[in-house]
Write a structure and sequence with these properties.
Blueprint: H1 11-24, E1 33-34, E2 43-45, E3 49-50, H2 51-62
Antiparallel strand pairs: 1-2, 2-3
Helix pairs in contact: 1-2
């Protein structure tokens, strides 16, 4: 099984991309935000996912869930 290499994603940009993609899909999350206690890990709070995961979710939503 191939592993995906983590990209260095700015967590603030990832949150904004996620908000925009969710808005485009008509989905409302209460308050996605960057976790201020995780500067090195770059966690995004939704249920605490890494910024690269949030960025992939945003991209998947824009593609309609297609890879």
């Amino acid at each position: 099984m191939a592993t995906k290499q983590k990209r260095d994603v700015d967590p603030y940009a990832a949150v904004e991309a996620l908000r925009a993609a969710l808005d485009d899909a008509g989905i409302v999350f209460p308050s996605p935000r960057v976790d201020p206690a995780s500067s090195e890990l770059k966690l995004v709070e939704l249920g605490r996912v890494r910024a690269d995961v949030a960025d992939r979710l945003a991209n998947a939503l824009r593609r309609g869930g297609r890879e």
